[in-house]
Amino acid sequence: MTDPEEPGYELVMPFVTVASKGGPHEDQAYTAGWSMGALDALLEHQRPPVVEDTIRDDCMPQADRIAMRHGYSAVFEPTDVGGWEFMQLTRVTEVKPGG
User: Is the terminal CB of the chain with fewer CB neighbours within 10 Å at N or C?
Assistant: First the structure.
């Protein structure tokens, strides 16, 4: 539970197999894997020219590698919320589907 004075985030679709909900998966690792998997799928299947999103700062190195795999350059900037970074990915090369 977050303090009402602190910024927080809620999921539209809650993860029910994470430890905080009584499940076997560690919360931070599960959500990081979910978000990086979603980013990989977006870049592989939709190939938008630019992607802008906010991600956890501990995911930046992985997001950068995912971007490179799909021919994107990555720029990260701090946000006003600790632990989160603004990410802008720009497609710079065409990569065949599947990497």
Answer: N
Q: pLDDT digit string (tens) for 6-21?
A: 555 566 778 889 999 9
Q: Which residue has the tokens 């980013």?
A: 39
Can you give the residue ranges of every domain in the chain?
Answer: 23-91
Query: Cα separations (Å) of 58 from 4, 23, 45, 70?
Result: 24, 23, 25, 20
Dihedral, 20, 22, 25, 28 alpha carbons, nearest 10: 0
The CA distance from 91 to 99, in Å, is 14
End-to-end Cα separation, the chain, in angstroms: 40
**Angle at the Cα of 64 from the Cα atoms of 19 and 85, rounded to 5 degrees:** 65
Q: Virtual CA dihedral for 91, 93, 97, 86, nearest 10 degrees?
A: -20
